[in-house]
Amino acid sequence: MNLLSRIFQGFGVRDPYRCYTAARAMEVCEEADLDLVVCDGSLKDGQAYDFVAALRRSDLAPNRFAPVMVVAGHTPLDQVQKARDCGANFVVTKPVTPRTLLERVLWVAQEARAFVELDGYVGPDRRFHNLGPPEGTGAGRRRSDAAVEAAAPPVAPIDPEESLL
After folding, report:
1. How many domains does the chain have?
2. Residue 80 lies in a domain
């Protein structure tokens, strides 16, 4: 927590909220409007993912829509899926460097994923790109899918045979 706080102070964050339990984090969400929630995947009470899910399902606007990054020391696939399924925007693996954290914060700030509310999931749309229907399937899998043509890449691909000297 101290390391993350110091990194964010280096980014210009003056008074970050520090919560050592999910219950305290929810209290802060009720008291203040937040721009970003950074949650350690190993909160003392073990409720990090439950906190994110509860925040997403709460009526605490605007905080329920705030970007949430989960910082975790161990990120096996099931933990990443758990973070995704509870409504987190991003998972950052420890050890965290200021550069990596800043890149992720900027990425989360610039993304334009819609907020989705379904019976089994509340949070940012888990799809990162809308690439249209798979190649060779015509208009798509549903009648409502429009035909989409992929654009050419903006830059020519690098030729591995070309010398870099």
Report:
1. 1
2. yes
Domain residue limits at 9: 2-124
Nearest CA-CA partner of 110 in 89, 94, 93: 89
In a domain, 153, yes or no: no
The verdict on residue 139 lying in a domain is no
Amino acid identity for residue 112 in this structure: A
Per-residue pLDDT of the chain (165 residues; tens, 9 = 90+): 888 999 999 999 988 999 988 999 999 999 999 999 999 888 766 688 999 999 999 999 999 999 999 998 878 888 888 888 999 998 898 888 999 999 999 988 888 788 889 888 999 887 765 555 556 655 555 556 555 565 555 555 555 555 444
| CA–CA dist 154, 143 (Å, integer) | 30
pTM above 0.85, yes or no: no
